[in-house]
Input
Amino acid sequence: MNFHQTVAAAILAASFVAGPAAFAAPANKVIAMVDTDSDGTIDLKEVQAVASATFDKLEKDADGTLDKKELKGRISKADMKDADPDNDGTLDKKEYLGVAQALFTLADPDKDGTLDAKELKSKAGKALVNLLK
Output
């Protein structure tokens, strides 16, 4: 299992604990917010753009990383460990975008390179939505 699969699996497992209340945004609303080409689905490029903007919004202390406080529950302590290969207790933008990519891949079982509303309702899709909020 590679790094991204490990991170995604850990985050996916955590989503079982978080439950549906943690993912309040309806899938169609998320698609409308992320879908810049208005095709009714979201692709990895769109997800990466939103994940990058989310990282920038959360990164308050200008150190180039997100710590547990800045992540605001988007990633559990166990998931943080898996997503943090340098074990510094923070995620840099590359690591954060790696988590988004891994979750996108897990949420795309038909491997068509896009996520629709149904795929966003999967466990991996919900974890991705939580990461992007």
